[in-house]
């Protein structure tokens, strides 16, 4: 139970009065809250510290340290005054200290008053001092006198001089370097040389210089620098030094000082220096001599000569012929070490070349594999020809045994020619231009293809021969048959065999023929056993397998031939037309027979939207409107429409009738009435007005 | 001492007196005592920030008279 006397902290503490102690109270706004006391109890239960209620605590103890403390503003005037006071105090203190210090120091007056109280003592003191001085002087004099008396003085002086002389002689100067040109130091003139300032760490010998000379040198150098022109001088003249000799030009000389450091003339005192000077003098002399030589110039011109068109022997030397390199063409194969060795051997062997003629002969004897081709433009052709001849020869030898049979059938005229030529001199070949030409002709593959050549004749003969043979064979057959018939009377089986034999013979004959031809055309039969490829090859060559390629070619060839027989350009055009789209502007290529006399009369007609033909003017307008995308205005188009209508009406109007067709109506009326007249006004007497035969119009 | 109003918008609205150096957990306990729910089930929120139990009210800058959202988990 909380005491109700406790004043609640919150403004809404009143509701807690009616509340049960444990239960939170709900006020009108449905908000529950409990009093501080209850909260505190709750907190105690929860183990929390009690609420910090400000009112309670404020009475019990001063507010928390967090509260602000009012600090009064600083009084500036007060502060200033205190500062001033302090400063004054410090000053005083300082003063006092200084005064104390000064108090200890004695002034001159004070000392005077203390020590030399009177003038007497001062005089005494000074007198004593003077006395001492005098005494010292007297003693010195006495000593001098003593020296003179014994003759020591002279000795000492001479010794001193000697010592000085010993310390430094011309001997000591030897090897010293003087950093000036030798010429600048003139003989018979005193030049004071001093040791040059040098770096302490530099361990070179001392260097002597003269200040004045250095100055002059510097002046000279500056002058030169002033004279210098900008770096690039394309048309620079050769500079000449004082002797009139051209100075050697140095590339980018202006950078030399920067790279190598400044160069200075110098000489060494003593022997070595003399040597150098001598050398220099010699060089100078040489230069001078050179200069003199140069100046010698003869005015005599060269003796006159007859101008020659040819070079003399001496001049020809300069036109030495450049030897061509000997090139070796070898059959392309993989290079091996053995080959290299062989090559060297060959070279060794061929180093002894001998004469060219003999070699040529040798080469002709040589077979192709070892053939060496020395390429020289003039001989190239000849060599080619020789090669060709060799080839032919080989071929002939190969063919000889085979062709012995075939020769009777087929004969190559060129070869024959060759053989004839070859017979008289088998060992060597005579090379003349025509023979070579013929020989090369023999190899031309197209030779004899164009017809009317020898070969054609051969072929013809071949055919004839075949025919003859066939005839002969047939005769033989018949003979055999007859024989067989004769034999049949004796025994049957023999004949059959014979016939078979005959057949085989026949086929063999054919085979042989084929073979004969094949020797020329076909290759040798490939070995089947060696592999699949070989077998395939064989099959191909035998014709078991056919190359598709070949077939196609054959077909196309035949087709071409067929086409070519009656081929005209016009045909081509029509043929193309079948497949390609007809060009519609070209029209038919072949003339249209039915309309032979037809001459087209082109006429341009333009129709308007209603299908009426337009005049040129209208057509133009129409086109223009179309082109510009806008027609004429409403008024204008209406006007035009009206005009059109009028025109149409005019056209429709008959020339014999009025526009209202009165005439027709009249005629109709007359037909109807069957009278030659018409009564216009009803009440009038017909006779009086209208006369017969005269209708109203 | 500060007073904080907690409102779940389901019919419970509590005013709780507490110290600013109380933790959120303590506050939850107080609320639990007042409302009669288990304090572990209470979630205090302000907008999208969920207040964590071990942090003091003053650190969250919760002052006198502030409204906290009361949720249950």
Automatic annotation (TrEMBL), chain A:
Q: Which locations, inside or outside the cell, does it occupy? A: Nucleus
Q: Where is this region: Disordered?
A: 1-88, 111-130, 449-512, 593-661
Q: Which GO terms describe its biological process?
A: maturation of 5S rRNA; mRNA cis splicing, via spliceosome
Q: Which UniProt keywords apply?
A: mRNA processing, mRNA splicing, Nucleus
The family assignment reads: Belongs to the SNU66/SART1 family.
Instruction: List the protein's name.
Output: U4/U6.U5 tri-snRNP-associated protein 1
Q: Where is the composition biased (Basic and acidic residues)?
A: 63-88, 462-489, 635-649
* Keyword flag Nucleus: yes
Q: What is its main location?
A: nucleus
The record, for PANTHER family, names: SQUAMOUS CELL CARCINOMA ANTIGEN RECOGNISED BY CYTOTOXIC T LYMPHOCYTES, U4_U6.U5 TRI-SNRNP-ASSOCIATED PROTEIN 1
Organism, as annotated? Daphnia sinensis
What Gene Ontology terms describe where this protein resides (cellular component)?
U4/U6 x U5 tri-snRNP complex
Key word tRNA-binding present: no
Bias (Basic residues): 622-634
Q: Where is the sequence biased in composition, kind Polar residues?
A: 25-37, 652-661
From TrEMBL, chain B:
Instruction: Please provide, in alphabetical order, the Gene Ontology terms of the cellular component aspect for this entry.
Output: cytoplasm; nucleus
- This protein's source sits in the domain of life called Eukaryota
* A GO biological-process term: mRNA splicing, via spliceosome
| Matches recorded under InterPro entries | Hub1/Ubl5 (IPR039732), Ubiquitin-like_dom (IPR000626), Ubiquitin-like_domsf (IPR029071)
Under PROSITE patterns, the record lists:
UBIQUITIN_2
Residue intervals of the Ubiquitin-like domain: 2-73
List the keywords (alphabetical): Ubl conjugation pathway
Tell me the Gene3D superfamilies matching this sequence.
Answer: Phosphatidylinositol 3-kinase Catalytic Subunit, Chain A, domain 1 (3.10.20.90)
Tell me, what is one Gene Ontology molecular-function annotation carried by this entry?
protein tag activity
What the entry lists under PANTHER family is as follows: UBIQUITIN-LIKE PROTEIN 5
- What name does the UniProt record give this protein? Ubiquitin-like protein 5
């Amino acid at each position: 139970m909380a005491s109700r006397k406790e004043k609640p902290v919150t403004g809404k503490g009143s509701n807690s009065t009616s509340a049960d102690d444990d239960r939170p109270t709900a006020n009108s706004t449905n908000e529950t809250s409990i009093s501080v006391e209850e909260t505190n109890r709750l907190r105690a239960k929860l183990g929390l510290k009690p609420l910090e209620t400000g009112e309670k605590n404020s009475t019990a103890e001063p507010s928390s340290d967090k509260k602000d403390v009012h600090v009064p503003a600083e009084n500036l005037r007060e502060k200033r005054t205190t500062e001033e006071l302090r400063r004054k105090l410090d000053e005083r203190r300082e003063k006092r200290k200084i005064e104390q210090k000064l108090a200890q120091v004695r002034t001159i007056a004070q000392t005077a008053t203390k020590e030399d109280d009177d003038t007497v003592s001062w005089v005494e003191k000074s007198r004593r001092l003077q006395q001492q001085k005098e005494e010292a002087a007297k003693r010195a004099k006495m000593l001098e006198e003593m020296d003179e008396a014994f003759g020591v003085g002279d000795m000492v002086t001479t010794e001193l001089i000697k010592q000085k002389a010993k310390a430094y002689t011309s001997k000591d100067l030897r090897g010293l370097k003087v950093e000036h040109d030798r010429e600048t130091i003139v003989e018979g003139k005193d030049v004071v040389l001093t040791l040059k300032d040098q770096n302490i760490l530099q361990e070179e010998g001392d260097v002597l210089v003269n200040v004045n000379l250095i100055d002059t040198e510097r002046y000279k150098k500056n002058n030169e620098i002033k004279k210098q022109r900008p770096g690039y001088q394309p048309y620079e003249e050769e500079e000449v030094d004082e002797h009139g000799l051209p100075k050697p030009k140095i590339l980018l000389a202006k950078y030399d000082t920067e790279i190598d450091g400044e160069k200075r003339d110098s000489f060494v005192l003593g022997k070595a220096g003399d040597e150098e000077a001598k050398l220099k003098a010699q060089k100078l002399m040489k230069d001078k001599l050179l200069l003199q030589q140069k100046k010698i110039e003869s005015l005599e011109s060269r003796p006159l000569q007859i101008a020659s068109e040819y070079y003399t022997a001496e001049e020809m030397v300069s036109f030495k012929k450049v030897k061509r390199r000997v090139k070796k063409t070898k059959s392309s194969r993989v290079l091996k070490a053995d080959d290299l060795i062989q090559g060297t051997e060959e070279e060794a062997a061929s180093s002894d070349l001998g004469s060219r003629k003999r070699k040529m002969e040798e080469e002709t004897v040589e077979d192709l594999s070892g053939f060496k081709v020395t390429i020289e433009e003039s001989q190239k052709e000849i060599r080619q020809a020789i090669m060709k001849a060799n080839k032919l020869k080989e071929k002939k030898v190969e063919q000889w045994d085979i062709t012995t049979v075939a020769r009777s059938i087929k004969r190559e005229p060129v070869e024959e020619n060759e053989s004839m030529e070859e017979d008289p001199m088998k060992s060597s070949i005579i090379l003349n231009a025509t023979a070579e030409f013929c020989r090369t002709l023999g190899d031309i593959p197209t030779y004899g293809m164009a017809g009317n050549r020898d070969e054609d004749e051969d072929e013809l003969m071949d055919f004839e021969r075949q025919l003859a043979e066939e005839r002969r064979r047939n005769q033989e057959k018949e003979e055999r048959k007859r024989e067989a018939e004769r034999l049949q009377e004796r025994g049957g089986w023999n004949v059959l065999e014979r016939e078979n034999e005959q057949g085989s013979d026949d086929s063999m004959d054919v085979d042989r023929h084929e073979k004969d031809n094949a020797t020329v055309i076909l290759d040798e039969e490939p070995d089947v056993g060696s592999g699949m490829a070989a077998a395939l090859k064989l099959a191909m060559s035998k014709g078991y397998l056919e190359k598709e390629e070949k077939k196609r070619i054959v077909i196309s060839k035949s087709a071409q031939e067929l086409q070519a027989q009656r081929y005209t350009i016009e045909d081509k055009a029509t043929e193309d037309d079948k497949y390609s789209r007809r060009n519609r502007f070209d029209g038919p290529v072949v003339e249209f027979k039915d309309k032979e006399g037809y001459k087209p009369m082109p006429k341009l007609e333009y129709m308007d939207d209603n299908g009426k033909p337009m005049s040129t003017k209208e057509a133009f307008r129409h086109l223009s409107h179309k082109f510009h995308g806008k027609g004429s205005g409403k008024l204008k188009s209406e006007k035009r429409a009206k005009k059109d209508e009028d025109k149409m009406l005019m056209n429709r109007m008959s020339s014999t009738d009025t526009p209202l067709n009165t005439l027709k109506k009249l005629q109709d009326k007359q037909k109807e009435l069957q009278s030659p007249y018409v009564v216009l006004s009803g009440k009038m007497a017909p006779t009086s007005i209208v006369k017969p035969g005269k209708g109203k119009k | 001492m500060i007073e904080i109003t907690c409102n779940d918008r389901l019919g419970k609205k509590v005013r709780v007196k507490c110290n600013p150096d109380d933790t959120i957990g303590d506050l939850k306990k107080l609320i639990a005592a007042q409302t009669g729910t288990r304090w572990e089930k209470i979630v205090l929120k302000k907008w999208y920030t969920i207040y964590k139990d071990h942090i003091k009210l003053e650190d969250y800058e919760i002052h006198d008279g502030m409204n906290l959202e009361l949720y249950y988990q």
